[in-house]
Amino acid sequence: MRIAFLTAPEGVEQVELTEPWQAAVDAGHEPVLVSTQPGKIQAFDHLDKADTFPVQEVVGETSADSFDGLVLPGGVANPDFLRMDEKAVAFVRDFFEQGRPVAAICHAPWTLVEADVVRDRVLTSWPSLRTDLRNAGATWVDEQVKVCDHGPNKLVTSRKPDDLKAFCEAYLDVFGSEGG
């Protein structure tokens, strides 16, 4: 299974990228780092710079139909940058239109709001996104992980780095059951 991990050039919370990535590798899947620009991305540990990672594919030069699923790591700045990039937003929206599974953690649902794909869905996130998600038509819940199967695809969401173990288990289970 080929899984896109979409990040902005900087601002992704490193642990929210590396733990789901490693879980995909351990499960025998092929994670692919997709970003809005070629080169490397700069990850963060909260507000401090962490490691850099090489971009493998660029939004606008790849498409959702090249992947079996999408993971959106969080970090405060990462989804804020992504939601301002029309190609990144269209890339995310395409996964929903094609019925492919999507997983988002922490602040990542901001990008889902911009893609207008949360209406009538139940999801969780970092608590500060609660009002944004409700205003976009979603039902927000305070749960470690939430799987929503409203619509043609399944959406897995989680609140924060402390939820990563449950998030990884849930997204791999859902992606596997989607037959990618």
TrEMBL record:
Keywords: Glutamine amidotransferase. Gene3D superfamilies: 3.40.50.880. It comes from the Bacteria. InterPro entries: C56_PfpI-like (IPR006286), Class_I_gatase-like (IPR029062), DJ-1/PfpI (IPR002818). Residues 1-172 form the DJ-1/PfpI domain. PROSITE patterns: PEPTIDASE_C56_PFPI. It holds the Pfam family DJ-1_PfpI. NCBIfam families: PfpI (TIGR01382). Belongs to the peptidase C56 family. This is Type 1 glutamine amidotransferase domain-containing protein.
